[in-house]
Amino acid sequence: MEINGIVVSPDPRLRQECAPIQAITPEVIALAERMKEEMFENGGCGLAAPQVGELIQLVIIDTEYDSRATYDPIVLVNPVIVEQSDTLVPFSEGCLSIPGISCEIERPDRVVVEAYDLDANLMRYEAEGDLFCVCLQHEIDHLHGITMFERLAPAQRMRAMHDYQEARSRGAQPGDTN
């Protein structure tokens, strides 16, 4: 199921492993542009290709914009976490594909990610203790069929799923959090 161009839970596409991108084609570039528009229109800070129904390893992130003028997402093709700290910290996360709720998720407080840009240049991103750090991990999870529900302990997961069903029954849209 999709709302405002965003695939929402429990759509099975959100639980599938995504294929690596073999070549940066005009179709991949067009998808990245479409994702940029969908993310902005829905008020997100990160978006993975399965969230728009495409099961490939493509992510866009912009955690710092406050208007269309400052919106300039980075594009990550085949991103991989190559280093992460052992220190886990809690962070309240929302997800365009799970509208209406946020969940406290523990994740490493430092990551190093390698990915290609749309010019096929290998890029390296380091993030520590901020929204960008969390967003990198959250979006890469999507490429492996992992939503924030799977990052919760069983009792927390049941509560979050209940809260999500209530939010959806109230008409929650992508970009809505509690």
TrEMBL record:
Q: Which domain of life is it from?
A: Bacteria
Tell me the active site: E139
Q: Which SUPFAM superfamilies match?
A: Peptide deformylase
* Recorded catalytic activity of this chain's protein: N-terminal N-formyl-L-methionyl-[peptide] + H2O = N-terminal L-methionyl-[peptide] + formate
Q: What is its EC number?
A: 3.5.1.88
Tell me the leader sequence span.
none
Print the keywords alphabetically.
Hydrolase, Iron, Metal-binding, Protein biosynthesis
Look up the record and name the cofactor or cofactors this protein needs: Fe(2+)
Answer yes or no on keyword Hydrolase: yes
Top-level EC class, please?
hydrolase
Q: Which InterPro entries match?
A: Peptide_deformylase (IPR023635), Peptide_deformylase_sf (IPR036821)
Indicate whether Transmembrane appears among the record's keywords.
Answer: no
Q: Which residues bind Fe cation?
A: C95, H138, H142
Q: Which GO terms describe its molecular function?
A: metal ion binding; peptide deformylase activity
Cofactor descriptive note? Binds 1 Fe(2+) ion.
Query: What biological-process GO terms show up in the record?
Result: translation
Q: Which family does it belong to?
A: Belongs to the polypeptide deformylase family.
The role this protein plays is:
Removes the formyl group from the N-terminal Met of newly synthesized proteins. Requires at least a dipeptide for an efficient rate of reaction. N-terminal L-methionine is a prerequisite for activity but the enzyme has broad specificity at other positions.
**What name does UniProt use for this protein?**
Peptide deformylase
What species was this sequence derived from? [Collinsella] massiliensis
